[in-house]
Each structure stands twice: as structure tokens, then as C-alpha cells.
Amino acid sequence: MMNLVFPEHFLWGAASSGPQSEGSFQKPHASVMDYWFQTRPQDFYDGAGPDMASDFYHRYREDLRLMKECGFNSFRTSIQWTRLIQDLETGAPDPDGVSFYNRLIEEAQALGIQLILNLHHFDLPEVLLEQYGGWESRHVVDLYVRFARTAFTLFGDRVSRWTTFNEPMVIAEAGYLDGFHWPKYKNRGKASVQVMYHMALASALAVKAFHELVPDGSIGIILNLTPAYPKDAQAEHLAAARFVEQFYNRFFLDAAVKGSFPKELLEELRRQAVLFTASDDDLAAVSENTVDFIGVNYYHPRRVQARTDSWQEAEWSPNAYFCDYEMPNRRINPYRGWEIYPQAIGDIADVIKNEYNNIPWYLSENGMGVEHEARFMNEAGVICDDYRIAFYEEHLAQLHQAIQNGAACFGFHAWTAVDCWSWNNAYKNRYGFIALDRSTGSRTIKQSGRWFRKLADTNTLTLEDITL
Ligand code: BGP
Description:
This protein is of the alpha/beta class.
């Protein structure tokens, strides 16, 4: 048996997001996700949409209490732009939205759960996509900053830790390159680069507003820093992995922490005539307004190789530089199709420590989605998800090692608390510590939730069986 003790005041909890949990009740606007579901419900597993999600809008009290029972000292969710803001041009708030988030904050405070509030979780107001072209538009950056200012002004007195975006890369990748999130474009390379730049700028301008309005708080950005591992050490595969690392990871990481963009990548984008358009003032804002901390979402590694065919599309795309590599004998979560590779946490931690000035960070999402979990229910009605406990144990052991090696990591958030809705997969794969019965709305803590309670209460990971 081995006991791994985590640093004092470590954050223990989970993350969720407004669009995946609240339901669309009372919102003054539709997000791109709401609109996607209204337009193409057949894209979603079992036809389940964000309209109902997990009904957190009505059940937040019960859900927070269950989180407390699972030992949470912290919880991240996102404020929906489409709920908080009534007038998207001026940033004037919607009274019902204000009241909901106030009640949520009060309840979390009463329970001693520190809320981390995120501002954007893939959920742009749809009308801004229609009217302006969404994140391709510089005007939308200003509108986002107005929304951010409203949120900081209303809630910054009680919530001190914020994040500007969750996984902005996914918005470009899934929406503009690979076609699996609305607006489902494929290989619109030049547009994707502009979208990425505008989100990096929006984040910097929100950081600036935050530091003015909430001087005692701290603000970060949540990035999916999925490491890119080459197939082998051949030069062409190394080059493919290097490109992927720069485009998919370092673009946002450099902008957020260093206030600049990777030089080699910018040169390539310029050569290809797809570099973003930016004013000097805006570039100065990026350089002057870096984040206080990073949230790292980690689920799986990315294994890449040089392209095995020649790129045929007319338009430039990052997909021209690499293709995915299926490593033989990799461990896989068959439900989500993602490789399981906890060691990547150490690699991410080393990059942050050695190349990003050891900026404080926390593991802001990590988890395992599993289908048909009801088959693991015992007679008492509890889902015995020992596979999830084993998954977390392995990842936490790596995280603990990284901290021993000097990583400035201040917390661990699982994905997720109560089973929640997901983008394409809706309720197919369940991730929560708390099971949701969609037919009755009832919630039941899973075995992993009990396990997490002990972990959080003792600040110690106890490993019975050491196979690491
Ligand atoms: C992350 C997102 C989350 C969540 C999670 C699980 O990328 O930030 O919102 O959805 O992935 O992935 P999925 O729901 O696609 O299985």
C-alpha cells in the first residue's frame, strides 16, 4: 500500500459547463449548440439536446449538495453568454440570468465550495455567427469583452477565480477544420487561423478587464494541451509532431502565458498566406495581458505521423501536415475511442515547468466516459464504476509525481460531477461521479463519488495495488 499526499489547499472537485448542464430554460438567446440541435437533432445520440441537459438550472441546489457529499472543495462551471446577456451589443444583463448565477454563487458559498467561473465553453450566441461570422469577426471580440465585463462587475465580488475560455482550440478544430461541431466547416484553414487569433485576443482583453475590475482575483484560460507524440524518430514524423504541437497546443499557450505566438508557426502561416489579420494595438494587448494561471484539460495523447497520402484539398489546412497514427497495442477506452496514457501528464507538467516559467496550473478536466453504466448497478442502486476509480488513480499518481518533480499544480478537477450532456454524443458516454437517471431526473452517487470523498477529505491518494 502507498499513500500519496497532495499539497495543502489542493483543489478537489470537478468541472462542468453551462450548456452541458443547465438546460435552455429562460435563456434570452440560443447558442450555436442550441441552434445546431434545433436544426439537426439527428446529429445527437438518442436525439438528446442541450434544451434539457441535466436541468441544472432547476436542480443546482441538489447537485451542489451532492458534490459536497463527494468531498468537493471546488467546482467549475461556465456562465452562458446566452443566458447572462440580454443585449448582446451593449452587454446589458438579463435579470433572470443574473438571478440564476447569483443564486448559484450563494449556494456554493454556503456549502464552502469554491466556484471557478468560465466565460466561454463552445457556446457562442448563434445570432453572432449569423450576423457577423462569429469568431472570424473582430466585432465579436468586443462583444465578448462586454459580456466579460458585465460578468466580472456582477459576480467578481464573490468569485475570485475565473477563466476566459475552455479549449478554444476545439472551436477552431471542430467547427472550422474537422466538421464535427457547428458550423461544421471542413478545412477552412485560413478562417480557422483568424478564429484562433480572435479568441486569443478576446481572452487577453478579458484578462485586462478582469485585472481592472477584480484586482484581488486571478484569471486563467483552460487549454487542452494534448501532447503530440511522433510515430517514431524519423525526421518526417518528428516534423509532423512538431507542427501539430505548435498549431494545436502552443498557439494558445504562448499567447496566454508569453503574450506572443510561436515564431516558427507564424512564419509558416505567412509563407502560406494564411496569417491572421491583426492591428498593432491588439497585438500589444495580447502581449501585455497574460494569464495568472492555466487550466489543463487532459484526456488522451495524440499520436501523429507524416501524411501517408498527398494533400488534395484546394485550401490550406493544418491537416495537410500530418495524419493520426494508430499505435499498435495502445490502451483504449472503447466507448470514447480515446487512448489511455496517464504518463502524458508528466510530459505536460515538464513543458509548463521548463518552457512556461513554471506558471501555476491545475488539471482542470480528466475523465473516462463509459456507455450503459446501468449494467454496473448493484442491488442498492449504486453504480460500481471501479474502472473509473482505476483510471483516476493512475492519472493522479502521475500528477503527484509531477508535483514531486516541481510542477506548480494546485488542483485536480474531474470531468464531471453529475452525468452531463455532451456535444455529439449527448448522453451516450457517462463521466460523472453522480449518475443521472434521465427518465426521472434522479441523481445517485456512484462508487467513484464515495472514493473521491475519501481522497478529498484526506488529501491523500491511497493505492492498494501498486502497478505503476
Ligand atoms: C472536453 C470538453 C468537455 C467535455 C469533455 C468530454 O473536451 O471540454 O466539455 O465534453 O471533453 O468529452 P466528450 O463529451 O466529447 O466525450
